Amino acid sequence: MDISDIAKKLGLSDSKHIIRKAAELRRLCDVQFDSSAIGVGEICKAIICLEIAASGWEEVIFDRPTVIKLSGMSEKAYNRSLNAMQNGLGVKTKLDIRELGIRFGCVRLIPFVQKGLSLYKGRFLAALPASRRTSADFTRPVFTAVAFYLCAKKHKLKIDMLKLIEVCGTSESEFFSVSTSMKDLCHDVFGILKEKKDPKDVKGN
To answer: Which of helix, strand or coil describes residue 34?
Structure first.
């Protein structure tokens, strides 16, 4: 089964630019490392390349149940393979807030997560010396994942934290570290702390 056939099953047959990008990623993968060494078969490799290729396009949302079924793996194993291939290819994928909302059944959280992230970035940067502001990196998926989780807690919605950590490809320690920083700086958005802390007292990432 080639990439075009898999794309058709995922409803991406009209997204020629994504199919071309996925094919490029697959060739790059074959050159740079042996995917079978990390337990990723040919079909799963093609699916993961499609997901990585589609991650930069907000209008494209993967059908997770179909993806998992086609891969022949459990969701946990698939996420682990996805993270391993991203690391092997040296690529970063953007964690889309809308996709998280759909995947975890919390679409109504999207505007709250967007607001919380925006506020956190502003306050975090304001607490840094001017010389360090340009080097602050908020592109890592962990920031989106933590904001999503904290918003869910505030609205009393149950989210599987471990599953979320797997999806964003981070570690528990990094997740908790960002969570602490975000709760301290944005207590008014996430409703966690009783008192507001001065941003300058909160250590940065």
So the answer is: coil
Q: Is this model's pTM higher than 0.85 or not?
A: no
Q: What is the mean pLDDT of each run of 10 residues along the chain (205 residues)?
A: 85 86 90 78 88 72 79 84 83 78 89 92 89 81 92 91 83 89 87 50 48
Alpha-carbon distance 145 to 143, whole Å? 5
Chain Cα centroid distance, residue 205: 18
Map tokens 């709760």 to a residue. Answer: 183
**Residue in the block written with tokens 């390349």:** 49
Backbone angles phi, psi at 57, to 5 degrees: -115, 110
Give the amino acid at 192.
I
Is 139:92 a contact under the CB 8 Å cutoff?
yes
pLDDT value for 180? 92
Where residue 153 falls (left for φ over 0; alpha for ψ -120 to 50; beta otherwise) is alpha
The whole-number pLDDT of residue 93 equals 65
Which residue matches tokens 């679409």?
107
CA gap 58, 43 in Å, rounded: 24
- Assess contact for 182 and 148: CB atoms under 8 A: no
- Reading the block at residue 39, the tokens are 């337990």
Structure tokens at 75: 């969701």
Q: Compute the distance between CA of residue 56 and CA of residue 52 in angstroms, rounded to an integer.
A: 8
